[in-house]
Structure formats: C-alpha cells, structure tokens
Amino acid sequence: MPDVAGRVADAFEVSVREQEESWLSPLAVRSYETRGRAHAEEEECRLRTPFQRDRDRIVHCKAFRRLKHKTQVFIDPQGDHYRTRLTHTLETAGISRTVARALRLNEDLAEAIALGHDLGHAPFGHTGEEVLDEALSERFGRRFRHNEQSLRVVEVLERDGRGLNLTVETRDGILNHTGEGEPATLEGKIVRLVDRVAYINHDIDDALRAGVLRAEELPREQIALLGARGSRRIDTLVHDIVEASATAGDIAQSEEIGRAMLDLRTFMFEHVYLGPAAEEQRALATETIRRVFGRLVEHPEELPSERPGDTGERIADYVSGMTDRFALAWR
What is the pTM of this model? Predict the structure, then answer.
C-alpha cells in the first residue's frame, strides 16, 4: 500500500502540470508557477498543489472558524436560516469556482482567495467596520480596512504570530478583493466581483425573510432584468460575467447587467444596510464597539499579551477578531 501511495504522489505534480497545460486558458495562473511564499517550506505537499494547500490552511485557521458567529446583515441572528459571514464566504467561494471553471482559470486559486477574503472583517458587518475605523482614526490616527486586516491575519496573526505563509497570488487576491487596488490575477478579479454578486443577492433574501423588505419594494426594472428569485439573479449574473469576460480577456460584465447589479447594491445600502429598519441594530453595534474600544484604550493590559504590534494595532486586531456574541458579552 505505501508503494502505491508513493507512486501516485511521485506522479502528482507532473499530472497536474499536464492537465493544466491542456485545459487551462493561457491567462490562468498555473498551480506550480506561483511566485512563491514569504518563507520557504520545509517540505512541499506531494498530493496538493500550492493553492490547494493555501485553501486548507485557511479553512483550518481560527479566524475562519470565527466567521460563523460574525454578522453578515443581522446581528447574532436567532433564526437558523440567516446568512453569517461564514456562509457568505462559502457562497462566494462556490460561485467563484463556477466562474473560474467556465473561463478555464485556476479554480483552486479562486477558491483560496474567496475563502480568505473576509478573515479580518470586524463584527457587526458594515457598521462594525465603520465604527472601528472611526475610533482608530480618532485615537491613533490610523484606519481600519477589513481587506488589509484579512491580509494581516494570514501574514502575521494566525499560528501564534507565524502566519499561514500563503502564496503571493492568494495574498494579493485577499488584499485586493475590495478597495483601490486591483488584483494581479484574473482569479483574484473573479472573487472581487463575485463577492458583490453573492452578498447583494443573499442579503436581499435575508432582508425579505426578516421582513425588513417586501418583494414589491425591490427595484422593478432591475429585478425584471436580473430575476425575481435569488438563484435566478445569480444565474443571470454568472452567465453575464462569463460571456463578457471571455470576450474581453479580462473579468467583466456587460454594461446593462453591471449597471443593474450596482443599482441593486445602492438600493440595499439605502434601504437595508444603512436604512431606518437597521437603526436599532446599528446603534447596538456602535455602542458595543465604542465600549470595548474605550475600555481597551484605558486598560491595554487587558489585551492578549501575545498580540504583536503597537497599542493601536493590538486593539484593532483584538476587536476585529471578535465575533458578534463575544463582543456583546465582553465586559
């Protein structure tokens, strides 16, 4: 049995290289042509590509497990069927793989980026990020951006300060899934766009379930174009991305579909994320982050001693790493 396993392992890299050369687009990142890691590995895995290894390290890290108790839209929701930051991450990863496969790009790289993109997100969703950013700016003159924090998680914070030692391509995609920078790979660009496809549509679903929205309140023109059900809208958006990207040689949307999606996003910010119905939850999130932050500024000795960095960095790390329920219960 060990001989059989050894023969498979010996041929694995060669087989993957051959398969990718015959299948992948010339625009795809090849699994064994990564730009490498910050630190050389003592031993490479003989049955996983570098991007598969990135994926596994992300899934097994503590920050990934905490995502199950971080807000997507609703704070510490009581219903069993509301999305959390973890389910959002999984939906983003699944859609990203679909797009990558259709375009003959590297699915494993797209999946690794998607699974790691929100590891540094603060509790309480959009509001939590905004409040933590404001508090850090006022007290320490620094900003908080969850994409930058996600990179810090994988480079510095995980594994007791050693980080996950991910590939350059995965780290680039995590950092640039939002913000001003553009991902260096098409796989990263897929995640940047699919992140929005996923959260716009599943957040509509959750808002309808919670009674924050009624179906008839959704923008008629955009819903008629994209689809009345979340699954139909995602299908429309994915097909459009694939067809537009194949023509463009980049990750793109058609003008009509892309505009409709952005209109839906604007609608969600105005009516759900920052709308009147969420005022009570925003107030709770703001009070909680401010309370925890203020306490830690006054008593930095209460910060975990092993956290690297100055006081502002350590507070940002600790607060952003909290789950909703941990922050609500913290005293």
Answer: 0.95
